[in-house]
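Q: What would this chain look like folded?
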Amino acid sequence: MTTTEDFMAALHKAESSKDPAELIALHAGDVTLQNLTKKNWEGLDGAREFWDAYLSDFAEIHSEFTHHHESGGLGVMEWNASGKLQNGGDINYRGVSIIEIRDGKVGAFRTYYDSAAFVNPAQG
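A: My prediction, written as structure tokens:
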């Protein structure tokens, strides 16, 4: 399996168990993480904070990967996610995540998604 495929499998496990430990283990010690917020996360502590925050947004969530590709140290994943927010509202949104791979580990993670779905989840 590629690092990208390992990442997707670990994310599925984290989403179902609410425990991101295996996902975080795929990250390099100096990893950087970004989403659409203006905050950046760094290192394994930052990765733990990022993934804990992601999982805490949802009562349940499942990402369905529609396409993925890995080449030249870059992994790209297109996905659709659906589930329930903590307030019980349904959420459906889609996006793209990119990982930079160094020595078989995630050296950088960036994700871009339909943030409007969070403003009005019923429309997502």
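The helical segments are 3-17, 21-25, 43-56, 116-119.
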